[in-house]
Amino acid sequence: MPVSWVNPRGIFTTTSPVENTGKVPPSAFDRPSVFLDPWLPDFSFLFLSILVEGAPFILLGTIISGFIDVYLPSGAIDRLLPRNRGLAVLMSGLLGIIFPVCECAVVPVIRRLVKKGLPPACAITYMLAAPIVNPVTFLSTYSAFKKIPLEMAGSRLLFGYVIAVIVGLILLKVGVGRILKPRLVEELKEVESSHDHHHDRGDNFVEKNNRLIMALRAAMRDFVDVGIYFVIGITIVAIVNTPPPVDQQTIPLRDYIDGTAESIWGAPAALMGLSFLLSLCSTSDAFIAATLDTFSIGPRLAFLVFGPMMDVKLLFLYSTILSRKFILILAAGLFIGIGALSVLLEPVFEGFERNKPPPFAQTAQD
Asked: Is residue 323 classed as helix, strand or coil in its secondary structure?
């Protein structure tokens, strides 16, 4: 998948310095047109690139959510998952292998599944794990890292699964009202009440021909609801990632980031912050991580795990189902947990490259 939109003006590099003519160049902010004329095309290019990349997945997710709303019987999820809640969380973290969706598509699906009876702890586990624990992301990561493809792809999958399951197990002890938005909690109560009083009306009340229309209508409502937050999110992403054209120079962001590469705690923190701002899709972010070769494996895995679980656009998408307080707690917990685990496992990750035989080593021996 193309990822050139991440850097339309060379955000990771610097352009040639402005020639010194002895005159002080006027500020670009003195006249808005001077600033906006070169800045707006880059912003538009980045905004439209993210929109074109993410909108199809939003549409796919809302279509799936619409069919779940109409065709999936209430309580079916409870019958499919193990009765033991701990085992249910463990299984939820693996659902992305069967239903591979990216972080944009999973949010509307989760909202419908919760209304159909999926426990919030299992829903959050699937929501966090699905963008990472799926075959598409595994293959893209495998393709991006040429030297140690299997090690990086496998480590990312396992890392993401462990973090998602830990969050899910913790949430088993947390009340629904502290996780979901109050409006969604009220809707759940109404659904339960309606299910108790009208259990036998379901399939006979709605004709099969009308079900398709109802599913598409539900998908349209979800698409508008989620799409608004998605557009707000990617607008902020595009603004943050489009450097101002002051003196025709770009922000040397790569220089600042590389300065943290030798720091044990600063390196994963910097790359997680970068993944949060870039808001890349989980199917393409590995190609960006592969270029950050001044960093060791641990920080780059933190980049690959934190980004699909929490970024700027996801803050707005999560706000359609989760309470604001919980989103902030979740973001802080993921940042600390992923960063700490990447540091603790760094000796293991370093062993991957040490144990990897150099290219054509066997041929040379022969």
From this structure: coil
